[in-house]
Amino acid sequence: MRKRYATLRHLQTLDPAVDHELIHRISSDREFPWDYGRGLEIAIWRTCCVPVISEMLDGTGEFALRAQKRYDDTRILLGELVKGGYDSERGRLALRQINRAHARFDIANEDMLYVLSTFVFEPVRWIDRWAWRRVSTVEKLAAFHFFVAVGRRMNISGLPTDYHAFEQFNREYEERMFRFAPSNQRVGMSLLGLYSSWYPRPLASLVKATLPCRLDDVALRMLGIVPAPSWARALNRLGLRGHAFAERLAPRTVGRLLARPTARTYPGYPLGYDLSRIGPGWTVARVSEVSDR
Q: pTM higher than 0.85 for the full model?
C-alpha cells in the first residue's frame, strides 16, 4: 500500500506555482484518470445551470445535434494543454482553437471566468468525495495555477491570485446566476443522454438512472432533471465506493477494465488526427492544417 502513495509523496516535493504543469499532468492522467474525467463532466453540466450560457450552447445546436463531438472537442483541447503544456506548439494551437470557438459570441468576462473555475473545482470536489484518496493541497494549487495561466492566454481578465478567492467567486457566481430556464433543461438532458450512451444496453438504462446522483439538488432543479430514486442513489454510492476501493488496490487492472475511447467521433484517436480540425465547424477553415502523422 505504501507504493500506492509514492507518486503523491513525489508531488509533495514540487512547487505548485512553478511546477504546476507537471503536477497537474501527473495528478489528472496518472493518479485520477477516471475520476478526473467524471469531474470534468460535472463541470460541463454545471455551466448549463446558467441561462446565459445554456442559451448560447442551445442556440448553436451543437449539443442537440453533435453532443458527442462537442464533448470530444472539449476533452481533446484540454488534453492537449495538459499533455504538452499551454506554451508548447500544440498547446498554442489548442488555445487558438478554443479562442476561435468563443470569438463569434459576445461572452461576458465573468461567465468565461466561471467556466474556467469549474475546471479547477469540480474535479477536485468529485475526487474528494468519490476517489481512492483526497486531492492534496499541492495538487489543488497546481490545478489553480494551471488554469489561471490558461485563462490568461484566453484573455480572461480579473483572474484571482489566490485559490480560495477563486473558489469564493465560483460559489458566489452560482448563487447569483443559477436559474432554471428551458435552455438549461434542453442542454442538460442532451448531456444526460450523451453520458449514458457510452454504455451498452441494458447497462445504459441503469447508468442513466444513477447519473442524476452526481449533481446536487440545486443543479438538478436548475436543469429540470428529476432526482434519482432511492435505489439508484444506493446503487450509485455502492458503485463509486467499490470503484475507489478497487482503484486503491489495483489501479492498473481497473484502468484496463474501464478503458474506453476518449474521442468517439475521431477514429484512430489519439493517433493520426489533425488538431486544427478539432472544434466547431466555424473554427476549422480558418486554421492551417497541422498533421500528427
A: yes
